[in-house]
Amino acid sequence: MGRLSANGIKLLIWMVVFTVLITLILGLRLWAIRVKRRSFKLHDYLILLAYISTCCMAGLTWWAIANGLGAHTADLSAYERGVQFQLIVGSSVTWLVGTVSCKLSMISLYTTLFPSRRFTYAIWAMTILVLAYFIAFICLFLTQCHPVSYGWNPVPGGSCRSLFIQEILSITLNMVIDTLIAVLPIPALWRLKMAIRNKITISVMFAMGLIVVAVMAFRLEITLNPSTNADFVQGLYLVGLVSFLELWLSIIVVSLPTLAPLFRMYVEPVLARVLGSKGSGGEPRRLREAQHTIGSDPPSRRKYALQESFLEEGYEFGVVGTETNVKGSRGAEGNSQDSLAELVGKDGGTGLGMGGISVRHEIQIEREE
């Protein structure tokens, strides 16, 4: 123990940076839940499971790095090579639990955004496919060697299958499933009555899952490269890095839609002030100065616009400037529009539509100087 390779140190740096990043993302997700004052939902629990599984995989990898991960296989002792085999078994299980949890979390999130019956059938079909993938490959990973410990504790009559075929199958099916999950909501989204700009924004957000597919395509190329298998322990460095990237990016992509409340509460007001000051911020001041120079009294009151918005179960109430909109529950399509409105801003560009009520008020808060 204590043999650190240059490749192992590189992998360790990647792990530290992204572990901090996904921890921050998860913290922001929990903060968004508190801001919205909602209870935990299934997709929240699943992403927590993915995070825990990824951290367990990181712990196993740190142990393997301390025992020569990334070095040449011939330079390691029998014990150190055994540790690498233990890493394969442990990381295969934790990686599978992590990636499946991310997939199910995204699918569960879709059910809250698209409650239509037709889309629900597609969701159930995708869920069954993901669970079947999990069951099939957990069995394959745990029966790779007979007995399981044969890789680090050989016994007479034991054997191990080649990793090559099951790796190709796992990566290929994973790419297909992730692609289906990424494009699954797009047809339902574009059937909704929303502004084209908002449809494009939400489509891009969902399609970010294709970044993970690109990472898996790179992993497939690495697996097919003969040099990866020529030096087993050294090749584990690159395979491990790409496997981690898949999990890290999956957690980030799945969590992004849930951070919308924080964006609206903290980022949008700043952008509004910045863009407002650049666009017409000087006009009110110049107008007041002009009025004063032609003999009018200087302003004695300051007026403040009230802005507020929130979304509850089945209806949306918003006050933006001087206009108030009240949206009642309008069935599955209306609920989808209201839920998706959270991802793009306060109004979501949906309009009131049929059954909506528009109430216009002049609301001002005045303070005497």
Characterise the protein shown here.
This protein has 369 residues and is an alpha+beta fold. The protein folds into two domains: 6-262, Rhopdopsin 7-helix transmembrane proteins, CATH 1.20.1070; 301-369, no CATH class. 67% of the residues lie in helices and 9% in strands. It is built from 13 helices and eight strands. It has helices at 6-36, 42-66, 78-113, 117-142, 163-183, 186-191, 196-207, 209-224, 226-230, 232-255, 260-279, 283-293, 331-344; strands at 145-146, 159-160, 301-304, 308-312, 315-320, 323-327, 357-360, 365-368. The strands form three sheets. A four-stranded antiparallel sheet has the order 4-5-6-7, covered by helices on one side. It has a two-stranded antiparallel ribbon with strand order 1-2. A two-stranded antiparallel ribbon has the order 3-8. A hairpin with a 2-residue loop joins strand 5 (315-320) and strand 6. It is globular and about 70 Å long. The N and C termini lie far apart (74 Å). Residues 281-330 and 346-369 have low confidence and may be disordered. Keywords: Membrane, Transmembrane, Transmembrane helix.
Biggest sheet, open or closed, and with what strands and sense? 4 strands, antiparallel
Q: Percent helix among the residues?
A: 55-70%
Backbone CA Rg: 27 Å
Note the beta-strand portion: 5-15%
- What's the helix count? 13
Shape: globular
Content-based structural category: alpha+beta
CA distance, first residue to last residue: 74 Å
Low-confidence stretches: 281-330, 346-369
Average pLDDT figure: 79
Q: Could you state the order of secondary-structure elements as H and E? A: HHHHEEHHHHHHHHEEEEHEE
Could you name the CATH topology of the largest domain? Rhopdopsin 7-helix transmembrane proteins
Oligomerization status of the protein chains: single chain
CATH class of the largest domain: Mainly Alpha
Count every beta strand, where a strand is a DSSP E run of 2 or more residues: 8
- Write the CATH architecture name of the largest domain: Up-down Bundle
